[in-house]
Amino acid sequence: MRAYNFKTISILFLLIALTAVCAVADDWPNWRGPQHNGISSETDWIGQSETCEPNVIWEQQVGTGFSSIAVADGRIFTMGNTERLVETEDDRGIITTEFVEMDEVYCLDPNTGKILWVHAYPSALTPQSYEGGPGATPTIADSNVYTFSKHGMAYCLDANDGEIIWQNDLAANYGVREPTWGFAGSPYVDANLVIYNVGNNGLALDAGDGTLVWETGTSRPGYSTPVPFDFQQQHYVVLMGEKTFAAVHAQTGEVLWEHPWVTKYSANIPDPIVDSNMIFVSTGYNEGSALFDVAAGRVTELWFQHGMQSYLNSCVLWQGYLYGPNDNGKTLACVERSTGDIIWTHGYVGNGSVMLADGKLIVLSDNGILWIAEASPEGYRELVKSRILTGKCWTVPVLANGKIYARNAAGTVVCVEFQTTEPVDDTVND
Questions:
Q1: Are 225 and 245 in contact, with CB atoms under 8 Å apart?
Q2: DSSP type of residue 241
Q3: Spatial separation of the C-alpha atoms in residues 90 and 92, rounded to whole Å
Q4: Is the pLDDT of residue 155 over 90?
Q5: Burial class of residue 365 (count of CB atoms within 10 Å of its CB; 0-12, 13-18, 19+)
Q6: Buried b (16+ CB within 10 A) or exposed e, 277-292
Q7: Would you list the DSSP string of 346-410?
Q8: β-strand 398-400 against 403-407: which pairing, if any?
Q9: Rg (Cα) of the chain, in Å, rounded?
Q10: How many C-beta atoms surround the C-beta of residue 12 within 10 A?
């Protein structure tokens, strides 16, 4: 006769219920997430077992590019560039066909990778020391999708079907100059405005109709995305320019301060890391990193060092320490924010990227290796290491609702879930 251990079963169900309550899932509706800092609020996404392994559950092709992933309202969004065979008819009725390079905005099912809709428009691939294609990530707000091309075309699309709500060619209409490798900053939505890192210190359009609200000149910008920053109960964004970084009032475009930051090739690429009145800036090309205090409404350098160089992707700040890829050695590095001291380095990530969730680093090396590690100044403690992609992987992975989404330059997007291979304890006695 089969006897059941009801006490054990009851405790098991209680633990399962508590786990379900405590686990937190979250969308990732824009570049670097809801808090614009590369940190997710999700918990318990990897499980408690050291035998948890990543499993690629689907893959999809989205065209050449470096756009990351946005996840909102049960859909995921990204961009790529492909050649399409296009038919044109002249005024004599003669139809010709030709291959045209097109940027494409993709909306996918997050569970299957199925393409739900695609919005395409002509845009040159423009490879130049890299594969080319779009570098900005879609931004989702109020059921709209805001995108930006490397040549200055801004779109607002309906997230449900991809229909155009408005479009605005910023380069053609306002004369903003394209940087050497094309515009790369993602749209930043602030209440009724969409802010772009173009011109001297940014440009803002009305989010509803795409009309110009403010602009700050036509000089070449940097490649980063506007980062929110509050000062004296006013809301600002920090933008990396070609040779400076600046704090700009989000609603008016008024410049609060501007500070020089000059790098080789005038390539200020990573986002600054903003925490209260402290701003961490780091770039590659043998430049380095610095921490600035802006509490007084002016910029005061606290330290500078050449050892940590963020080339393409930003660090994350967690409990007083910065974690990110270091172009000086191509390693993963941990840096003490208050001093600039490099606490540890590990392995090879190349021009890879990092985000963080639940105290864990989610790292994608530039050759497609996914690492999960504890974010700790005590040293590198690896939880997972597994290949999930091949080819060049410069784009930051995204954790949303328990799944990791990642892509390579060629346009292969993968969805990864963690599954345990550890045997489950039998709670039933014979």
A1: no
A2: B
A3: 5
A4: yes
A5: buried
A6: ebbbbbbbeebbbbbb
A7: ES--SS-EEEEETTEEEEE-TTSEEEEEE--TT--EEEEEEE---S---SPPEEETTEEEEE-TT
A8: antiparallel
A9: 23
A10: 14
Q: Please give the Cα distance from 397 to 408 (Å, whole number).
A: 10
Q: Span 158-185, mean pLDDT?
A: 97
Residues 204-230: b if buried by 16+ CB within 10 A, e if exposed? bbebeebeebbbbbebbbbbbbbbbbe
- List phi, psi (to 5°) of 153: -90, 120
Phi, psi at 11, each rounded to 5°? -65, -40
| Sign of the alpha-carbon torsion through 408, 371, 353, 248 | positive
Which helix (H) or strand (E) segment holds residue 9: the answer is helix 6-22
Which residue type does 110 have? P
Cβ neighbors of 211 (< 8 A, separation 6 or more) are 205
pLDDT tens-digit map of 319-339 = 999 999 999 999 999 999 999
State residue 138's pLDDT score.
98
User: What is the domain partition of the chain in residue ranges?
Assistant: 29-420
Tell me the C-alpha distance between 126 and 135, whole Å: 12
Contact 148, 123 (CB under 8 A): no
Q: What is the pTM of this model?
A: 0.91
CB 94, CB 106: distance < 8 Å: no
Q: What is the 3-state secondary structure (H, E, C) of 46-110?
A: CCCCCCEEEEEEEEEECCECCCCCEEECCEEEEEEEEEEEEEEECCCCCEEEEEEEEEEEEEECC
Residue 307's φ and ψ, nearest 5 degrees, are -70, -40
What phi and psi values does residue 265 have, to the nearest 5 degrees?
A: 65, 10
Question: 48 near 55, Cβ under 8 Å?
Answer: no
Main-chain phi, psi angles of 118, to 5 degrees = -135, 135
Residue type, position 67, single letter: S
User: Is residue 173 within a helix (H) or strand (E), and if so which, with residue range?
Assistant: helix 170-174
Give the list of residues 6+ apart from residue 276 with CB closer than 8 angstroms, or none: none
d(CA 180, CA 22): 47
How far, CA to CA in Å, does 178 sit from each of 147, 213, 241?
16, 20, 12
**29-420 maps to CATH 2.130.10.10:** yes
pLDDT at 16 over 60: no
What average pLDDT does range 173-192 have in this prediction? Answer: 97
